[in-house]
Amino acid sequence: MPRRNARNTKGRIISAAWRLFYEQGYEDTTVEDIVFESETSKGSFYHYFQGKDALLGTLAYVFDEKYEELMDTMPQELSAMDKLIYLNHELFAMIDGGVSIDLLTRLLSTQLLARGEKHLLDRDRYYFRLLRQIVTEGQRAGTLRSDRTVNDIVKAYALWERALLYDWCLCGGEYSLVAYTDSVTPMFLESYRA
What distance in Å separates the CA atoms of residue 75 and residue 79, rounded to the nearest whole number? Predict the structure, then answer.
């Protein structure tokens, strides 16, 4: 039971922090704000995080929570390719409408500079487990190429999504992330059709 409470506490801190980052901006959000919003204590906060900057690496956690929610709403009869398109659209819609480009840029830059753990590349993340499941299903159903391994296709897809995010940040969000990905992701995935 303590482990679940610990995960809930950490999750509440992360969720509260990202909500505040979006509403108030990263610079204007304090550790005290996060502690108050998450209904935790400063001791709990510092048990999990060295400071506010450490929360930048947790956006992957927020993304994974979104993927878990999407699995409950995604029509299960979709083909593997359509599931990947659906997930891409829904996550990027969340980012386009609810994650500040400045925050996303900070996250991506921290991952570039990180010497240790790179959260976005953690193959144990829910994101990667979900992608492996979908690609495996697609290969078994004969809709996705089987001359590439599941891991090869997952790696290419994850790389594709990161490339779209990096480009959007580099361009300062001058175009709609959702509209662009909706137009190009099906073309990218077409190369993996069986």
Answer: 10
pLDDT tens digit sequence for 117-148: 556 667 778 889 999 999 999 999 999 999 99
Question: Would you call 113 exposed, middle or buried from its count of C-beta atoms within 10 A (0-12, 13-18, 19+)?
Answer: exposed
Contacts of 4 (CB under 8 A, 6+ apart): none
**What is the pTM for the complete model shown?**
0.78
Give the residue among 38, 39, 17, 40 at the shortest CA–CA distance from 28. Answer: 17
Domains, the chain, in order of start with CATH, read 1-49 (1.10.10.60), 55-190 (1.10.357.10)
**Residues 17-37: b if buried by 16+ CB within 10 A, e if exposed:** bbbbbeeeebeebebebbbeb
pLDDT of 138: 96
CA angle 38, 61, 84 (to 5 degrees): 140
Q: Give the number of C-alpha atoms closer than 13 A to the C-alpha of residue 52, restricted to the C-beta side.
A: 18
Find where tokens 């994650």 sit: 99
